[in-house]
Task: structure prediction
Amino acid sequence: MKACVPHVPETLTAALLAGQPDRPAICADAATLTHGELAALVASSAAAIAGFGVGAGDRVLLIFPNSTEHIVALLSVTALGAIAVPVSPRAGRRRLRRIVEDTSPRLCLAHPDAHVPAGIATRRLSVDHGAAAVSFSPSPPPRARRGAPPPITADCAALILFTSGSTGEPVGVTLKHRHLTWTARALAAAFELDADHRELIVAPLAHSGAWQRAAATLVGGGCVAFWNGLPSVVGILEEIERLEVTGFFTAPPLLRTILAAPRGVVGRGLRRCRSIEIGSAAVSPAELRLLLELAPGARVFVHYGLTECSRAAILDVRAHPDKLDTVGRCLPGVEVAIRDAEGRNLPRGRRGRIYLRGPQAAESYWARPELERNRRGDTWLETKDHGALDAEGFLKFLGREDDMINSGGYSFFPAEVEMEIGVVENVAQYVVAGVVDPRGILEQVPWAFVVPVDAERWHPRDFLSIARERLPAYMIPRRVVCVAELPLTASGKPDRRRAVAMYFRTMEG
Result:
């Protein structure tokens, strides 16, 4: 993996719009926008948004699917020194209401079909790809802003990305221009995303995983395309093949569905791919080895990070086949420490809480100063994750602290169970979670929630037989529940607590 490319701190718009003007930047609606056309769209859109009364420091709510409009709106807002607050159109109304309460947006920019919150001035933004033009609706005569705008620097806030946190309530992470540009350039260098790269955005752009990948593609001078169809693996693979996509980022649930698809379909779809990145949750060594086999021309990467510190560690899977139970080593300039409950550093090999420090690490949460006091010690970001460093500095991710299962004197993480079980034949997806022991003996017991490929030809004992072969006795799921689909968090991670809650609600009903 290449080292990060040193660079002078710059604004997000300047970094992402510096590609060769005549090279493709966005492929959408059977039309292609060049980097030059994208820059022109952002300039005209920014002028219009300024006319709507938006200036430096103002928050602007963005409600778009994965689209050109999302990228144009975000870059236009940040070009004015305002702060973009992206929200997925699929976000629940309670989550949206909480985000609005926290950020008090001056304006909402939205897709023509998106639900928007009441009481906020709203403009519907559309891009005509054929004409390379942007329009707003409604579009009353803009107001002239008074005075010259303040200078925008790399230290200005650019983005507030909301993460669910340990409570499930949305928490806004404030990211500055320098955080975002550093990550984009670091990823473009590490993944070798150049002007020939074509990225398919599958995960929601309103979250860190997909946005950072799109930004890295544009910084590298490449082209971005979007997937907004139904979650059809065959459809996604056909789109990858049709658009000649060379890379994408995915969370493990979609990866597992791809791995369970017919091999011929997967092989055709991935044959041009040379950069596949996986993040947000654990992936087993068996799954990674199968992906390497199905995509022989691709470099496969696993990352570990948080919204507060994106892509802190990266594993180049082909380069380190003996480290597939880890999430790799830190990018140059990023540091990781493992500490005990009292905050003391632990030696290599010992398990503890993960702390991070690096140029992409956010320093604050929006309107939540109590979290800064609780989660930061000195200059380090204190995470709620547990892990261990091996002798060579590779990080093994164990799981989130609040996911830990305490069973009969044993403490372990669901992610450890999933890593050991790995790929299971005739199972599309599964997740392990801790459930209160109904007998009141072991405190908690592990359960597995499984989405079979063919429910009529599948039985829980098939899963249990594999688990018994691969797991120590205390980790074996005490119950296997067949479900039609797994609940996911807003960022695409399996939601263990919702899976348990949904099961018990069904039983009570």
Observations:
- The two ends are 52 Å apart (CA to CA).
- The domain at 31-152 is CATH 3.40.50.980 (Rossmann fold).
- The mean pLDDT is 89.
